[in-house]
Amino acid sequence: MIINLQTSLEYNKYKSKSVVYSKELNESIKSFIPGQWCNLLFKNGEKKIAIINNQVIQGPVIRFINCFESYQNEIDFISALIKIAINKRNMLYPNSCSRRLIYGDSDNMPGVIVDQFENCILLQINSAGFDLYRDFIKEELSSLLNSDVYFYDNQNYRKNEGLPNFKIPKIPDNIKVIENKISYIIPSENIQKIGYYFDHRENREKLKNKLGQYDTSNIQNALDLFCYSGSWGLNALSVLNKDVTMEFVDQGDFCELINSSIKENGYLSKYSFTRSDVFKFLDHTKTKYQLIISDPPAFSKRIENRKQALVGYRKLINKVLNVTDKKCFWALGSCTHGISFEDLDGIVNEVKVKYNRKVQMLDIGIQGGDHPFSSLRDNNFYIKYILYYVEEI
Predict the structure, then answer these.
(1) Where in the sequence is the domain holding 123, given as residue range(s)?
(2) Quick one: 277 and 375 in the same domain?
(3) Are residue 229 and residue 369 in the same domain, yes or no?
(4) First-to-final CA distance of the chain
């Protein structure tokens, strides 16, 4: 049963907030079980469903969950949340089994991340309130989607929540993804985060569609930086002429992954993989490129480190503009929280002067509908994509 917690908190102050920090709470929560679900009662009698964690090392001790109906117990509530999330994905991506099914707070399940693939589902639970029901969540997903479900928890996140670390079970040797009609077979040893970066899927398709609209016959040398599975480059290759040479670069050992993806999709274009630190590669390459794709990992994990992240983007943008040809398409991606379109574009337009470049913005994009967010100020909004046309002046 969901119990009640009477507080002296003012409802209006927390009406639109999703969390409460320990310094804001006058009442003691030491006696609560970590992850306890409750009706948090405000001073004026209003209430919200909340989850309490008195063992969290850094972060909020209370998380609110929006509720549109009344449920008598946590099991019924969680079951309803899972079904709502799945129904939303079925509406947004009716013909796809490769998608993010549950995206934490955005689906009213903080700390729960679920990715669906063609041959399995990976489940990550990083919050105490839902970890109490981890076996139920796994069984519910398996039953509703008729798929094998595997836990793939993030041990650092769990440590922050004071949660036990379980041995990660063996997942399938190969994870199969189909995105924008392109197939990927990702070996389990190459899995990153929770499996695959679905968050830029719609931007990769936007890039493919834009390149398909333009005259790209001048493109001979193309570059996919921080390539991982090569998904950006493969989307581009699907519409470029067969004389293009695509160079994939990443510091990870993804040569076989790139090779298998090229063969899986029957591409005839020339390509190569270079295992290298991207910044060092850009320092040493003698080639000028007519297409560059740069979607780096987050330069910072915390919004507070925004200045540090901007230093990273400035460094990257400098090095990229130094290897653009006289005419070049450039796709710039970001997954760093706290970095805005204005931040990225501001640096580009500042740095372009140094390299005598003219830049024109052709397209912009955000994260897909399976990574929902409520506003441009929402912490769950983090994906940005800009397509530039760069000319020498």
Answers:
(1) 74-172
(2) yes
(3) yes
(4) 69
Q: Mean pLDDT for the chain?
A: 92
Residue 127: both structure tokens together: 């919050």
- Angle 98-153-204 from CA coordinates, rounded to 5°: 30
What contacts 318, CB < 8 A, 6 or more positions away? Answer: 351, 354
Question: What is residue 68's predicted lDDT score, i.e. its pLDDT?
Answer: 65
Helix (H) or strand (E) holding 350: helix 341-351
Pairing of strands 357-365, 324-334: unpaired
CATH number of the CATH domain containing 343 = 3.40.50.150
Backbone angles phi, psi at 194, to 5 degrees: -105, 15
Tokens read off for 188: 């389990």
Helix orientation angle between 306-321 and 341-351, rounded to the nearest 10 degrees: 40
Q: Which of 170, 172, 175 lies closest to 261 in space, CA to CA? A: 175
* 305 burial via Cβ count (<10 Å: 0-12, 13-18, 19+): middle
Given its phi and psi angles, is residue 49 left (phi above 0), alpha (psi -120 to 50 degrees) or beta?
beta
Distance CA 381, CA 385 (A): 12
Which DSSP letter does residue 339 get?
-
**pLDDT (tens digit, 9 = 90+) per residue, 130-148?**
999 999 999 999 999 999 9
**Total residue count of the chain as it appears in this document:** 393
Q: Which two tokens stand for residue 160?
A: 């922050």
Token representation of residue 246: 């695509």
> If we measure between CA atoms, which residue out of 329, 321, 316, 362 comes closest to residue 220?
329
Q: What is the pLDDT of residue 1?
A: 60
Co-location of 58 and 93 in the same domain: no
- For residue 268, the model assigns a pLDDT of 79
Q: Which residues pair with 334 in a beta bridge?
A: 384
CATH label of the domain that carries residue 16: 2.30.130.10
The tokens 């609110």 sit on which residue? Answer: 64
